[in-house]
Amino acid sequence: DDPEQGSSLWCLAVDPQATRPGVGEMLVRTLAERLKARGRAYLDLSVVHDNEPAIGLYEKLGFVRVPVFVIKRKNPINERFFAATPDEDIEALNPYARIVADEALRRGISVRVLDAEGGFLELSHGGRSIIARESLSELTTAVAMSMCDDKRVTRRVLEREGLRVPRGRTATCDEEDEAFLDEVGELVVKPARGEQGRGITVGVTTPEELAEAIALAERFSPEILLEEVVDGDDLRVLVIDHEVVAAAVRRPARVRGTGAHTVEELIEAQSRRRAAATDGESSIPIDDLTVAAVENAGFDLDDVLDEGIELDVRRTANLHTGGTIHDVTDQLSPTLAEAARRASHALDIPVVGLDLLVPDVAGDEYVIIEANERPGLANHEPQPTAARFVDLLFPGTRALPRGWEPEQAGRGEDHRV
Questions:
Q1: N or C terminus: which one in the chain shows less Cβ crowding within 10 Å?
Q2: May I ask the CATH architecture of the domain 141-166+231-252+323-375?
Q3: Quick one: which H or E segment has residue 388?
């Protein structure tokens, strides 16, 4: 019914985990061609005024700017655009601290950045002040932190509560380590303390590999934990205030063959995409562990991977080394949710990310392998992780549930082609 025979693009989103480049450009081109074939005279869209990558893409495709100032009604999606412009300190925060600061500012909570690089914030409201480092706050006790920091203690505490953990032992660097390897067949070797997957070796099957894995782990912690390998998906369950808020399956860094590029070139390209999608928080290092994962799959870095072939280039599903995360909150079984809640109570910790290995997120089987006292809230979109965290810190600012409002989100400049 448009007298101008125009058309509008209301929403375009590309999964940041996508392994293929140029998906957004291809979608827009295809849509424009189909609308043109249907007799549409033009296609318009709006872009947030400071989204330079999107503006650059649309101008590359032939869109031109239209001098139209658009005012849009405030709704739950575009609410952050109505807040004051953050200062430079807040702009310098990493995504895990920034998501907390943005939610606090949205509620009128004062935010003072104590150290942007470390993610330290002071949040104040109604005479109450709390210091937090990303999702770790003063509400988490030093005792709870210590329980999570030492993976051996975590195992013992959870096992005592009747929760399932893999068979394991502290490395003694003698024949007892090899006897345990013979007993279970395949090991994970990890530092007893540490984070972000540093020093972990998966799939140890020989005494020689065991010695190498222990030497690597010793670079990060003098105490080493040996655990049996348990097959299953790597599941992160986020618990806040002893309630499950989000669940996500993590997968190792993976590349897809093009038939023209070497494995190393594919890794470098995927690493750049992951870094761009995570503000530099995730990338794929080309180190001994990457080389080993590639070689275990029967390839070398110089091999050209056939088109469509997918190759896991890391053994562990760590987000900081290029892993991806996929929301499964609505699929999580009651059994797994209850196990996560029990674990948070056993550790007496208000915010925790529990790492489980499960054959099926909708099933009942699991083992808990770690507990993280400072889980990344930004990894669980679209779940309301930051909102639940700020609810915990400042319960008086908790908003009443609101229904969905269908008005167009965002504010910005209109473009037309």
A1: N
A2: 2-Layer Sandwich (3.30)
A3: helix 385-393
The reported pTM is 0.74
- CA 188 distance to own-chain centroid: 22
DSSP secondary structure code for residue 377 in this structure: G
Closest CA to 371 of 392, 385, 352, 346: 352
CATH of 6-75+409-416, one of 3.40.630.30, 3.90.1140.10, 3.30.450.40, 3.10.580.10: 3.40.630.30
Task: For residues 21-25, give the mean pLDDT.
Answer: 80
Helices and strands counted in the chain (H then E): 12, 19
Give the count of beta carbons closer than 10 Å to the beta carbon of residue 309: 13
Question: What is the amino acid identity at position 394?
Answer: F
CA end-to-end span of the chain: 19
d(Cα 306, Cα 201) in Å, to the nearest integer? 28
Identify the CA nearest to 107 among candidates 382, 390, 388, 351.
390
CA angle 315–320–321, rounded 5-degree value: 40
